[in-house]
User: Which sequence fits this backbone?
């Protein structure tokens, strides 16, 4: 469900929807409580609420902070994997000039074909599903190096280094696809804990008694925005290859642009 939301909704719209939905729903609940239980305005229960609410708030803050930190680590790991893939491709592009013109042209064509196919498949690969075009382009790149016959020690050394870079690129691609398939955010049980603690925070803010309705609504509104922002962060960071904070195929695009401008 959260994957569908991240894919189909812009980040600003998701944040706005959470803020409006949670703040509006909490305000409606607050209005009902103040109307249905007018004696709560006296604040006789505030001493008990003030004792329990900080405990709930601390637990909620620790939980959200821990989850956001863990998810941010996944995003950084995915970004490093993508950079490693792009760096390996750049290293191969730099070493192609040592070989003959025909071999260099095949390597250039193979790298450009792979970079474009890998970037084009990004939305599909974000769920761990590679496209046949990218797989075929990687096979063509392997074939380009397999047909090289080194004619000097320099070419042999560069071929060994290029094959090592090709292995690094293939490994980084495999890791990227596995990360996209496995890093799918908190499990349903943890989402239930997040929603439960968020509801407790909002519920206690609604139950605080205050004669001044504007001040009470303002306080509850501020807590609602805070909860909405936390849920937005968890949803956006749940998928390292989707959303506003996701990694991108920019390293591969940069490699393709570099080769496209090369003579």
Assistant:
């Amino acid at each position: 469900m959260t994957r569908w939301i991240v894919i189909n909704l812009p980040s600003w719209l998701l944040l706005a929807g959470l803020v409006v939905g949670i703040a509006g729903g909490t305000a409606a609940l607050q209005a009902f409580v103040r109307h249905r239980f007018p004696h709560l305005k006296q604040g006789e229960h505030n001493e008990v609420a003030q004792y329990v609410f900080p405990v709930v708030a601390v637990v909620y803050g620790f939980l959200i902070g821990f989850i956001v930190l863990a998810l941010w680590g996944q995003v950084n790991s995915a970004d490093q994997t993508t950079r490693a893939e792009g760096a390996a491709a750049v290293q191969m592009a730099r070493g192609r000039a040592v070989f003959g013109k025909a071999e260099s042209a095949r390597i250039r064509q193979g790298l450009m074909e792979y970079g474009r196919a890998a970037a084009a498949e990004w939305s599909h690969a974000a769920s761990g599903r590679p496209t046949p075009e990218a797989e075929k382009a990687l096979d063509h790149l392997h074939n380009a190096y397999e047909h090289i016959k080194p004619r000097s020690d320099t070419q042999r050394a560069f071929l060994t280094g290029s094959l090592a870079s090709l292995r690094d690129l293939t490994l980084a691609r495999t890791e990227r696809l596995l990360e996209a398939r496995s890093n799918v955010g908190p499990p349903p049980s943890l989402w239930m804990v997040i929603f439960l603690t968020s509801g407790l925070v909002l519920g206690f803010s609604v139950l605080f008694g205050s004669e001044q309705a504007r001040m009470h609504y303002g306080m509850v509104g501020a807590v609602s925005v805070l909860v909405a922002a936390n849920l937005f962060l968890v949803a956006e960071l749940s998928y390292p290859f989707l959303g506003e904070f996701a990694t991108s195929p920019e390293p591969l695009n940069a490699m393709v642009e570099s080769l496209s401008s090369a003579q």
User: Anything to note?
Assistant: DSSP finds ten helices and no strands in the chain. The chain has a mean pLDDT of 85.
